[in-house]
Structures are given as structure tokens and as C-alpha cells.
Request: fold
Amino acid sequence: MNFEVRSLKKNKEIEVHSEESSRNIKGQTYPVTELYIGKKQIGEVLHFGSKEFQSFADDEDLGTSKTLDLAIETIIRRWNLHEN
Reply:
């Protein structure tokens, strides 16, 4: 899955790509979507249920979203605020 992000300061397009993996937490396996810009991981989304997606960036809990798209948007917004 690829996304394009436009930086407001420079109007520069940045390609965000994702990789799917899984994580074992307390004996239960959850799907995880990892987000990258280039080779740098900018965050990950844990899929706890059909409408519960937990966003993380640099070990910081960014909260729960009802859709995967909203969770990804949360991570990209945080990256835009802190990295640009």
C-alpha cells in the first residue's frame, strides 16, 4: 500500500509505503501495518478488531481510530508536525 503526502512548506511529495506483519501480545497474535518513508519507519498500526486500530510512532501511543485509514492519517500528521 502506497500513499503520497504533500508537505505544506515545500510542496514536496513524499511516498509513504506500508508493510504487513504480526505481533504477539500476551499470547494473542495481532496484524500490524508498519509505515515507512524511504527506509525509516515512521509508525505502526495494531489491528485489535474490525473497528479498533491503535497508532504508535516512536513508542508513543497516538490513540485509537475506527478505521485503518484514520490511523494511518494520524501517524502521517504526527510525522509532518515533528519532522518537517
Summary: The beta strands are 2-6, 13-25, 28-37, 40-49, 52-57, 60-65. The chain has a mean pLDDT of 87. The first helix runs from residue 68 to 83. The chain is about 20% helix and 60% strand.
